[in-house]
Amino acid sequence: MSRVHDMGGRFGDGPVDATEYPAFKADWETRAHALTTAAMPLGGWTIDARRHGRECLPPATYMALSYYEKWLAGLTDMLVAGGVLTGEELQSGTPGAAPADMQARKLTPEAVAAAAGRRVPYTRDVDDPPAFAVGQSVVTRTRPFNVFVAGGHTRLPAYAAGLTGRVLRHHGAHVLPDAAAHGLGERPEHLYAVAFAAGDLWEAPEHPRDEVVVDLWQSYLRAP
Predict the structure, then answer these.
(1) Is residue 109 included in any domain, yes or no?
(2) What is the SS3 assignment for the chain?
(3) Where do the Nitrile hydratase beta subunit domain residues begin and end (predicted)?
(4) Looking at residue 2, what is its pLDDT?
């Protein structure tokens, strides 16, 4: 079953707001971003796990929240599910005693500057050569679902499932989000930029020669 966030090409959601906004529209959004980032070491969560946490919000909640409200709601669910805090602590606003191992993993004020400037690489070295070459035609999986976990995170959007595209670029091997989001290891795979004719994805593209480029992992693809 697809989740509410996978809404590309769906009718009825209104026009896309292309207004240019600053990265943060309010001061509380900067704190929401900082809080989410600082909390990740507590549960050992990856960026893919964080995305999955937001995707699991109830559809009505997801649609009602702003961008950083989704961040906070997803984080809250992850903290409770991971045993970092309890629902009672959230309701009361009074924290209990943190487990000793989480005390050791917490982000201290002295470490913030280094953590904020550190890039987390997701590229990996793999032994197997890429299965597809630039310019080659590929077909995406018909079922755009996580094959490891039912209802799990995936980066194959539903609108691009079961379609033929053209490999535009090979990005090297990267951590597979479908596995990393669920603590199943990195399972790195080759990653490709795949171009699709907009008319194959959308019922009424603005220009008939438009293309949509999607970054897709090797296991999402097969030869025609």
Answers:
(1) yes
(2) CCCCCCCCCCCCCCCCCCCCCCCCCCHHHHHHHHHHHHHHHHHCCCHHHHHHHHHCCCHHHHHHCCHHHHHHHHHHHHHHHCCCCCHHHHHHCCCCCCCHHHHHHCCCHHHHHHHHHCCCCCEECCCCCCCCCCCCEEEECCCCCCCCCCCCCCCCCHHHCCCEEEEEEEEEEECCHHHHCCCCCCCCEEEEEEEEEHHHHCCCCCCCCCEEEEEEEHHHEECC
(3) 122-222
(4) 64
Tokens of 115: 């953590």
Backbone φ and ψ for 16, nearest 5 degrees, come out as -75, 130
Q: What is the mean predicted confidence (pLDDT) over 210-219?
A: 97
pLDDT per position as a tens digit, 55-73 = 999 999 999 999 999 999 9
CATH classification of the domain holding 42: 1.10.472.20
What is the total count of domains within the chain? 2
CB 57 within 8 A of CB 70: yes
Residue 105 lies in a domain: yes
Domain boundary among 117, 151, 186: 117
Q: Is the pLDDT of residue 76 over 60?
A: yes
pTM reported for the whole predicted model: 0.89
Task: Flag whether 191 is in a domain.
Answer: yes
Cα-based distances in Å from 129 to 132, 170, 189, 198? 9, 11, 10, 30
Q: Tell whether 69 and 107 lie within a shared domain.
A: yes
Among the three residues 93, 117, 141, which one is the final residue of a domain in this structure? 117
